[in-house]
Design goal:
The chain is mostly helical. 61% of the residues lie in helices and 2% in strands. A three-stranded mixed sheet has the order 1-3-2, covered by helices on one side. α15 crosses α18.
Amino acid sequence: MSYQSYIKSKIAVGFFTILMSSSTAFAVDKAPVEINDFFQEVFEEGLMDSPESLTYTRFMEQQGKSWRHDKLDDKSLAHEEKNMALDHHNYDLLMAYDVASLNRNERLSARLMRWQMENDFELDKYRFHGYGITQLDGLMNDYPLFMNGYHQIASVADAEDYIARLHGVTAQFDHMLIRMKIQQEKGIILPKSLLGKVIEANKAFTAQAVRENILFKSFAGKVDSLKDLNDGDKKDLLNKAQQAITRAVYPAYNQALVFLNEQYEIASSDAGVWKLPDGDNYYQAKIKESTTTNLTAAEIHKLGLSEVARIQTEIMTILKKEGYDMAQGFEVLIQKMADKQEFYYSDDDQGRAQILKDYATIIEEVNATVATVFNVKPKVGVEVRRVPKFSEKSAPGAYYSDPALDGSRPGIFWANLYDIKATPKYGMRTLAYHEAVPGHHFQIAIAQEMKDLPMFRKYSFYNAYVEGWALYSERLAKELGLQDNSFDDIGRLQAELFRAVRLVVDTGLHYKRWTREEAIDYMFRNTGYAMSDVVAEIERYMVWPGQALGYKMGMLKILELRTQAKAALGKDFDIRAFHDVILTNGSLPLEILKEQVDDYIAHTKEH
């Protein structure tokens, strides 16, 4: 995944959502003398090529300017070809620098940029393999999420920009359909069960009266908050938005729906990417991208089975202490526990409001505790918000989005409240630690606030590192004494078990050729999670091969490195210093993370 793209991960939790860029357009003609200037030029050229990234990061606002919020990203194949050519050009410029003459931080930055570029080149042969539209992502989902969540309106000009973007989506849909037709010729079509969900969701999207659609309602709410605008001017803006949705947005969606319905008739039910051209090698490439390791699917599957057995044994030990009958076995006992009404909120607006309030309280509590294990904390705060109702049915259980650079938007922990049974009280602490503090919010916000990191490193995203840190944070909170309640601890272990099960089912789907139903059955029996969560997760792995592997692999590596540092340093080991090493270099491939810890150990021994 290119470090210059409009980040949207897509990721959540289970998976969470951070934004990454969608453009790698670098236009650096000649390498600057100073390599840090080169890094900045590469980053800025890629960012300036992506209007949506500019809106998301608010990079220009940090410079005291506002620019290009009336445009959407160019998603044409020609633009993609141009970007890849420029990526190769930049690689040649990077390789011309004398690495030996650089300081330590510059050498690390150069290595990271090279690592990412070479990974991009390796994946380029599979550029058509990723599904263009899924139940989770792709233009039909991402566009309203972007417009609702990130296009800020503080002036009439901002409102006019929003309307321009409503008209501009037509071109994006045209380019998307061109790509999907090429994919269809190659036999790359979303599985039938998921196509049906995409069709259903987007039929509902365009079946709404325009003024009930999230694109209009979000716009109307933002316009209504403009204080220096009279009612007549507000009405004029609302009418323009309604016309744009009627004449541009709905026709674009409906044209896509015609194509998707045609695809549905020829789609297969096969769940894994083994069915795609060169599918086995594609999956191995995705494993490397996600885990930043060279482990094989077979090795990961075996590791997953071992970790599932270990964690289930730990959970059973706690259940035995709480008086449960061990003879009934894990599957029965975990479901019995999950069925207890005392662990759930009321299935109404009041119950859902209380969930958000309680998440905020958990975050306040952990924020007051973490100073004992961290030297560095982010300056910007994190808020808890509900996943928008229009997307919650197919969205993950939770996800995180990072702060804006200009301070206009905090970090956000998005909680999905669609199914009340998917939010048991005993799992809330762990989810808050993962998504907010000290998980994603700490890692991402700290990286953004580091003064000596090039911008591309502040926005780098290595899945195993980012998700591994968040899963490690769940364990760290336990070590801080924040999960002493037996059931909260089961919630922590269940979340780790969930990630171990992912190793099994992801490789099961894409390597062992399991069906969707086989994967659902395995995950449901071995996690105790709500069926709605299990189905959403398995369907996620079907469209994002390998992505779910990074969590457990990253956590295991961080724990391994901490054990290594403790053993090597003995009484000189300081967990705050160790966390500095992990967090203050930005996101790193695991092999490079290990090198940083090795350097920290050697430096500490010398001093």
